[in-house]
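Journal club side-thread
Mid-discussion, someone asked how the predicted structure for our own chain would compare to the paper's figures. Pasting it here so we can look after the session.
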Amino acid sequence: MSDTTSPVAKKARKSIDVCAPNDERVGRAARMMLSNPTYSVPQAMLAQDFTEGESKDRALQQRVRRLHSKLEKSATGVVADVKDVKPAAAVVPAKDFAAHIPLGLKACDFLTKSTDPFLAVKTCTDALDAAGFVKLSKRDPFAGVLKPGGSYYYTTNHSTLVAFNVGHKFKGGNGFKIIGGHTDSPHLKVKPISKRSGSGCVQLGVECYGGGLWHTWFDRDLGISGRVLVRNTDPETGKEKIDQRMVRIAKPIARVSTLCIHLQTAEERGSFKINKEEHLSPILGTQSLLESGAKAQLNQFDDDDWRKAQEPALLKLIASELGIETKQIANFELGLFDIQPASLGGIQSEFLNSARLDNLATCFVALESIVDYSKSEDLADDDMISLIALFDHEEIGSQSTHGAGSPVMAEAVKRITSAFCDVVNVEAHSSAVRRSFVMSVDQAHAVHPNYASKHEKSHGPKMNAGVVLKTNQNQRYATNGVTGFIAREIGRKANTPMQEFVVRSDCPCGTTIGPIISSNTGIRTVDLGMPQLSMHSCREVMGIADLSHGLSIFGSFFKNFNEIDESLEG
């Protein structure tokens, strides 16, 4: 171990203080290195040369590299050569967390940007555009557009995404390899009449979306994001048109404050019961007679009843963010989010701390896998469709025009199949369904060390130990003997660890999109998930190695499913 009080270490601390304000990630890496000289993650991070866009300051990178070398020399007498660090393999032992850091950092960026279903889909489509995927219009026929070897995507409601690769040998009637997830998470959504005030404070009317652990939303710095409908004029026709714009204001503009301990009874302190209507309205600012008069005067000149029902300061902020006038805002769908960025945590940075891991962690890995497969040589010999479907509204039952209970999944199979048939062929669609397979992937419950008794003794998944296969004999999960076998074979071929989860017999079991899709489409389905803690909290945690495990499983699914399926009798 190096002496952290040595002249080199003291100089390093001074250098870190200079680095951190310019690039917090570089500063954090250096601090980690200084506090634990045997820790290999910073070296691996430097070896990546920050190509993920984590730093654009080359001089700063070189400065930290020199710092790294000095610390290594102080510790061991040997100067490390970062050029000798080899890229991480697809799958490495979970204890070697340095190999998983690059993917973990990329996930942090994805999660921080994806503050609601609209922004999650936008983040995905930006990546798909960059990877060369072709955007489809659902209103136009797919026939004549889809080609063998092509990569495509389309969205529904801007909050549900379907993206797919066409195998070079695909024909109408062949099967689909599908990864399903969801883009929504429990959060506070702004009500249609958002204006609210009380006790000298300007507040915001909100509604609870999904089954959140709402006590975790107290005393957090909250931003606002979502979809805004904007009135514009078509320059060619002169007619009014309505644009759909996405907005993300990552500033601490709102806060739900707890009641101080001195004003609570002993019973209230012990239970911390929340009235979701009365106690969760966030505070936006302070109210004064002058402000009230000015706002009332401004509202007199606005003939839009909907806008009159909104907090003027909020409308002004949104308009400023979008570069439009307040009167152009026709409607919005907004939600609150914790502005704290996603980050790596734990003593070896082995954890990913973030909001919305359930289920944006799946969305991230699914996106990575479909992009990776679009560039794979395996696509040349593939005679199937490899597809990801990321649905909205899972947290509230999936019953909507764009949830997993909608026609979206069945329609995708039917339309893509039909596009490769010369004539309408009902048999081709039926054949495709029988040859297809869905991985329904939703985050899984890792064993909590403080509440280990909540898990069934033999089915307790651990973080950083592999993807979880979920089974429930009452069909809360879609896994059965055959689909479970296929999933395990996919993991075996990828040399990737898998774990098993069954809920205790004396506990209720949650459910997923798996049973919904399998019953609606007739496609065989298995339920999987990456293990995490604090599910439905404002901030959750999972293991970074499981991102790599998930990516490996998904890649093996796209590559090996057909071979495994053909080996099955019947």
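Post-session note: Residues 49 and 204 are 44 Å apart (CA to CA).
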